[in-house]
Amino acid sequence: MMRIDIITAVPELLVSPLKASIIGRAQAKKKVEIIINNLRDHAHDKHKQIDDKPFGGGPGMILKPEPFFECIESLMNQRKYDNIIFTTPKGKIFNQKMANKFSLAENIIIIAGHYKEIDDRVREYFATDEISIGNFVLTGGELPALMIVDAVIRLIPGVLNDSEAALQDSFQDGDIVEAQYYTRPAEYRGMKVPDVLLSGNDKEILKWKKEQSEILTKKWKEINN
User: b or e along 35-54 (b: 16 or more beta carbons within 10 Å of the residue's beta carbon)?
Assistant: First the structure.
């Protein structure tokens, strides 16, 4: 069973999403164990302080190194971790290839920052992977952590009901976008499902899906370059 430890200063942002949908079912099936580690549990002053002003001046507060070091070293003393992921806008953009790699791991730590930044000594000392979810800045790393967890867990065998569903997703086979999908009714408000999908001709349907995938992939590349 895979184990994922998420280290966060704001655990309440993670509790509800981790109980729902595919992530919740994966835990119920004992396919993955997800542990939320509250950074404040590793702050020992009476105010449970985990942040401080940055050296050199500037706005915002920086998460202190001591609670992270104590938390991560405590976890590492109990088991070996394949990946220690540092969520940061400075990291490599997350993609399906990374999700595939992480899905093969046994134990993962995800460090979710908050406030202005994390003291960089945490990244320097522990991070095996530095990951961003895009060229924009969020309040904290909790949402990126959830996105990484969701993308990884659905690839674990037995998590999805349809064993082939994940293999057919967009980007699973490189930068390729899937063809569009339709379901009943065959006509809605004057908009009709393409006739080929109603034909029952598997060869023509496969050909149509391939052609549509190529068209949509080309369009996706144009709008993202």
Answer: ebbbbeebbeeeeeebbeee
End-to-end Cα spacing for the chain: 39
pLDDT score of 165 more than 50: yes
In angstroms, rounded to a whole number, what is the distance separating the alpha carbons of residues 14 and 31?
19
Report pLDDT for 41. 97
Q: What is the mean pLDDT of residues 131-154?
A: 95
What's the chain's average pLDDT? 93
- Contact of 42 with 66, CB cutoff 8 Å: yes
Residue 180 confidence (pLDDT): 94
Three-state SS letters, 83-146: EEEEEEEEEEECCHHHHHHHCCCCEEEEECCECCEECHHHHHHHCCEEEECCCCCCCECHHHHH
Q: Where are the alpha helices (DSSP H) in the chain?
A: 12-19, 21-28, 65-76, 96-102, 120-126, 142-153, 195-198, 202-223
**Rounded to an integer, what distance in angstroms lies between the CA atom of residue 56 and that of residue 64?**
15
Q: How far is it, in rounded angstroms, from Cα 223 to Cα 204?
A: 29
DSSP 41: G
Percentage of the chain beyond pLDDT 70 is 94
Quote the pTM value. Answer: 0.89
Residue 52, C-beta contacts closer than 8 angstroms, at least 6 positions apart: 61, 62, 64
Q: Which residue has the tokens 């590492």?
A: 76
